[in-house]
Amino acid sequence: MLAGMTSPAEIVAEVTALLDSLHGVYDELAVDEFEHATQAAWQARVNGADDGLVLAAALHDIGHSPLIDDHAHHDRAACAWLAPRFGDRVAWLAGAHVAAKRHLAATEPGYAESLSDISVDSLEHQGGAGDVGIEWTGHRWWSDAVRLRRFDDAAKVPGAQSISVDELCRIAGSVAERAVATQEALGARDS
Fold it and tell me: Model confidence over 65-104: pLDDT tens digits?
C-alpha cells in the first residue's frame, strides 16, 4: 500500500475532506479554491485529459487548503501530498504548475498579460518569468504540465461549468487503485 494508506477508499475520503476544506478559501478574487479546483478538472476533462491529468488539475492548489496550509510553497505541498496517494505522475504534474506559468510567461507572447492581477503578483513571488531549466522542460510529462497550467488559467470564472465532487471521487478512486497496484507489483518484483 502507499504511504500507510490502507485503501483507495481512505484516499478518496481524504480527497473529499480536502475539497470540502477549499470552500471559502480565496487565492483569486473571482472564485474560491473549491470552484477553481472543480473548474480546472472540468477544463481538463472536456479537453480530453486522462484521469491522472484531470485529478492533478483538480488538486494542484491543495497547498492552499487549511488542512495542508503551505501557501508559500503550495506547488511543492501538492506534490508531496499527492505522490504517496496517486503516484509520481499526478504529483509531478501538480507540482509543475508554477514552473509552467513561469515558463509560459517567459516564452509565450501575451501570456503574462493574460494572467489575473493576483496571478501576476504570485508569479513575481514565485521567481518571475524565466527559464525554468531542462529538469522541467525536458521532463517526459512537461507537455501535460503546460496543459494543466492552461486548465488552471481558465478556471477562474464565477459560475463556470465544473466537474462534480462525485466524479472527482470516482476518478481519485480509480487513480489510487492503479497507484496501489503499481506499488504492489513493484514490491513483488523487488522481493
Answer: 999 876 667 888 999 999 999 999 999 999 999 899 999 9
DSSP string, 26-71: -SSSSS-HHHHHHHHHHHHHHTT--HHHHHHHHHTTGGGSTTT--G
Amino acid at 131: D
First to last CA, the chain: 15
pLDDT beyond 80 at 128: no
Tell me the percentage of the chain whose pLDDT exceeds 90: 66
Mapping DSSP onto H, E and C, the string for 139-174 reads CCCHHHHHHHHHHHHHCCCCCCCCCCHHHHHHHHHH
pLDDT beyond 70 at 151? yes
CB 150 within 8 A of CB 49: no
Tell me the angle at which helices 142-154 and 51-59 cross, rounded to the nearest 10 degrees.
Answer: 50
C-alpha to C-alpha distance for 185 and 191, rounded to whole angstroms:
10
Q: Where does 8-188 sit in CATH, by number?
A: 1.10.3210.10
Extents of the domains making up the chain: 8-188
106 touches 161 (CB < 8 A): no
Q: Which has more confidence, 117 or 141? A: 141
